[in-house]
Amino acid sequence: MTRALLLFWLFCVGAAASQAQPIRAVTETTPYTYLEGGKVAGSATEVVELTLQRAGLKDYSVHLYPWARAYDMALKEPGVLIFLIARTPAREQQFRWAGEIMKIQYHLYRLKSSKLDISTLESAKAYTIGVMRDDVRQQYLRSKGFERLVVSAQPLDNFRKLLRGQVDLVPLTTDDAGLLCQQAPFDCAGLERVLTLDEASAGLYMAYSLQTSPDVVQRTQQAFDRLKAEGAVQRIMERMP
Known about the structure:
The protein is α/β, with parallel strands linked by helices. Helices cover 37% and strands 29% of the residues. Strand 7, helix 4 (136-143) and strand 8 form a beta-alpha-beta unit. Helix 2 crosses helix 7. The longest helix has 18 residues, at 3-20. Residues 4-18 have low confidence and may be disordered.
């Protein structure tokens, strides 16, 4: 067998092996990922599905879970693609990163009716803060010495704790705040942004579990890079519901 034929054979074997591994794309409920008609929809979901299709990875499914479950699956199981996940130094070696979908900025919100005196991150430690289990916001606040954290499994549960007075603050993006006000329901005019968590703000990515085939990761990254260069990612993410 010539070298050219050998390389072609290895390529075909690798591609076949990659396609033989089903991909489970997992995420949580956000303004960009949500259930619609019994199916996971949203702009970020569209980006992920288009990327996988462009990469020729047709054996995939998309699932919506509480964040802690999706995160645990991506840490422990092969063939799992998690999105939208913040890329932090602590997570860098835990996943195979495959493309930045968007950037986000977190803010601490309170009810306007509350009388909280918050001007610095240090002053916020005096109050209870609602967070999501295994979320980057929980990890960030813990790293800064916050101890009064109340953990929830679902974003809406966390937000309702703020409305019921069970927590004083919640860290959200502007889009998250708007969506949760709709779901609660609650008039967003009753919310007030008191502090921006600049250090916790980050890029949100697609990332594979470490047990996933490197060829799958490479094909996904290459397909995503092409879509981004074409402007498709930006166009899709700008289409908010």
